[in-house]
Design brief:
By secondary structure, the protein is α/β, with parallel strands linked by helices. It has helices at 3-16, 19-26, 30-44, 60-87, 100-117, 169-175, 229-237, 247-256, 285-298; strands at 49-51, 56-58, 92-98, 121-127, 141-145, 154-161, 163-167, 189-192, 206-211, 214-219, 225-226, 242-246, 260-261, 271-277. Belongs to the LysR transcriptional regulatory family. Residues 1-59 form the HTH lysR-type domain.
Length: 301
């Protein structure tokens, strides 16, 4: 058992209120969180939590142990930061979280270049569309889409996250190319099932465009509704229908002719994208180097 990780997981369980929420914040499965708790209790020989199917309650010892864990984890983090600053050169583990599509298509391929600049830095990359709390030290830096919901972090603007409506050449040969947004009603439009509450959740059934006549909201429907961009991407390349996809995912296909952009005279919705980190961590060479690298690659002109 990794005692340090088990203590970190225990702190998350206490603060999140249940194992399911803690698992999401830690990027682990609920089963793995439960395994860490059981291993910790077995090591200590004392129960930390009284758990039922509906609720959990700290034992008296669990409450005291939680405070000790906070102190120990804080000392470990401070020690690591002190060592990194003393070295002066980027080193240690840099923990990054980023949206799935951007992280897969843009960030992950760029890490080789970052490692050439900073060979002493090891990267732990968590790709998820959920928003993690950066104030607890689990992650050093995040790339985040959409509106910002915190003033406690430094936010550096990156290039906007943009979309393109496109289809495979074989689909357009068989079904024709839409000339105006209203033509989409006659086409098989493949849609992404965004989570409820997402800023783009309505695009599963309506595509917003802006053209000479102003804003239009076009109802769309089709034979596929998917919860992953990669699934829609593959289906579109296979000729199933028309998609509205992130440029990060389709730009190479557009260059190679595997997909063809349509309705290019109309503007599509976009999302702001930022690089987020805690101000007190920027003094760490590993984080400062990555921030500079990311702004060079994807910062706004």
């Amino acid at each position: 058992m990794d005692l340090f990780q088990a203590m970190s997981v225990y702190v998350k369980v206490v603060e999140a209120g249940n194992m399911t929420a803690a698992a999401r914040e830690c990027g682990l499965s609920t089963t793995m969180v439960g395994n860490h708790l059981r291993a910790l209790e077995q090591r200590l020989g004392v129960r930390l939590l009284n758990r039922t199917t509906r609720r959990q309650r700290l034992t008296e010892f669990g409450t005291e142990y939680y405070q000790r864990c906070l102190a120990v984890l804080g000392l470990v983090a401070d020690s690591e930061h002190l060592a990194e600053q003393a070295q002066g050169t980027p080193s240690g583990t840099l923990r990054i979280t980023a949206p799935v599509t951007f992280g897969t298509e843009r960030l992950a391929p760029a890490l080789s270049e970052f490692r050439q600049r900073c060979p002493g830095v090891k990267v732990e990359l968590n790709l998820a569309n959920q928003r993690f709390d950066l104030t607890d030290g689990t992650f050093d830096v995040a790339i985040r889409l959409g509106n910002l919901d915190t003033n406690a972090l430094i936010a550096r603007p990156l290039q906007d996250y943009t979309l393109t409506i496109c289809a495979a050449p074989q689909y357009l040969e068989h079904h024709g190319t839409p000339q105006v947004p209203e033509d989409l009603a006659q086409h098989n439009c493949l849609a992404f099932a965004f989570p409820a509450g997402d800023e783009w959740s309505s695009t599963a059934t309506q595509w917003p465009l802006h053209g000479p006549e102003g804003d239009v909201l076009i109802p769309v429907s089709g034979s596929l509704l998917a919860n992953t961009s990669s699934g829609l991407h593959r289906a579109a390349r296979g000729g199933l229908g028309i998609v509205m996809m992130p440029d990060a995912l389709v730009e190479e296909d557009l260059r190679q002719g595997r997909l063809v952009a349509v309705l290019q005279d109309y503007q599509l919705p976009l999302r702001a994208m930022h690089l987020l980190y805690a101000q007190d961590r920027y003094r760490l060479p590993k984080l400062r180097s990555f921030v500079e690298f990311a702004l060079e690659k994807w910062g706004r002109p």
